[in-house]
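Spend some time on this chain, tokens included, and walk me through the fold:

. . .
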Amino acid sequence: MLLELNDVEVDYGKVRALKGISISVAEGEMVSIVGANGAGKTTTLKTICGLLKPSAGEVVFDGQRIDGRRTEEIVRRGIAFCMEGRRLFPFMSVIENLQMGAYSRRDRQVKAELDRVFELFPDLKDRQKQAAGTLSGGQQQMVTIGRSLMSRPKLLMLDEPSLGLAPLVVSQVAKTIQELNKQGLTVLLVEQNARMALRISDRAYALEVGEVTVQGESDELSKSDYVRRAYMGV
């Protein structure tokens, strides 16, 4: 497995946000985590990338424990975190935002990675000198994903990439994530939009109040009466 969380617990003061969850992601796989607000989805991603420290359990990436390590070291090891809400530098240009994603790299292939991002998102190439804060919501999400790709990650973690976007744009974002995965990038996708997440991922975990309530192949979960009622509103 490329990523493993084993019996991970995380506390916010006296409140236990994650209650011994175990999650795995194989290399080349796309795994989704679905659940309502407060389920522990974002906490899981923050714990993986070192923004939060587990009070118990372990996080293993590419064969080595990373819980307790600094976030910048985890990024250099190959994990990129595309955060909820896009979190761009609004007064910086598109290309400057993208270049910030390569800050941890010391090789000379940054230009090639930039060309790859522009090939993936042609709209950004035409707007590379435009201030990121003046873009549409969908274009800003493209910049956010592109910035994460600039670190050339082994694992891309996406937190609610469809949030606040129009249905047509959500479909475009989903297709982009699928294409990245088809190109060999391992993806861990967190989504409230369970319908979309289960449609494009290989496997899925459902979180509820810090615990994994159900897990399995995404196709099978999408047919589950429990999942359809609890997470898809059907």
